[in-house]
From TrEMBL:
Keywords: Membrane, Transmembrane, Transmembrane helix. InterPro entries: DUF6542. It holds the Pfam family DUF6542. This is DUF6542 domain-containing protein. The keyword Cell division does not apply.
Amino acid sequence: MIQTLRRFPNPRLTGLGGGLFCAGLMFTLGFLVSLLFGSSLTVYGVLFVPVSVLTAVWMRRGDLLTAPIIVPIAFATGLVPVADSSGGTSGRLMGLFTALATQAGWLYAGTLAAGIIALVRRIRLVRSRSR
C-alpha cells in the first residue's frame, strides 16, 4: 500500500506555480467541456472541485495560504471558453458574469475545500514546528 502511494506524483508548487497550474488546467478543462459537453457549466463545476483540492495539496508549505486565493481566480479563467459568448464583447462579459452567478455553489465548494486543506496543513505545520 505504501509503495503504491509513493508512485503518485507529489510536486510542491510555489504560489505562482500553483496559480499557473490551476488556471491553466481550468482553462484547458473549460475548453474541453465546451467541446465535449456543449458548454455544460455543471460538468465544469464538478471538475473544478478536484482541481482545487489538488492545488491545495500540492502547494509548498510556505505558500499554503495562497491556495484559497488562487482557486477562485482560476475558476473565472476557466469559465471564459465555457460561458455563453453570443453578441460580441458585451455578450461575452454578460455570459461570464451570468456563469459566475449561477455557478457560485461550485465556486464556493472548491474554495472552501482548498481553504480547509490549506488551514489543516498549516495547523499541522505549526504544531510540528512547536515540538
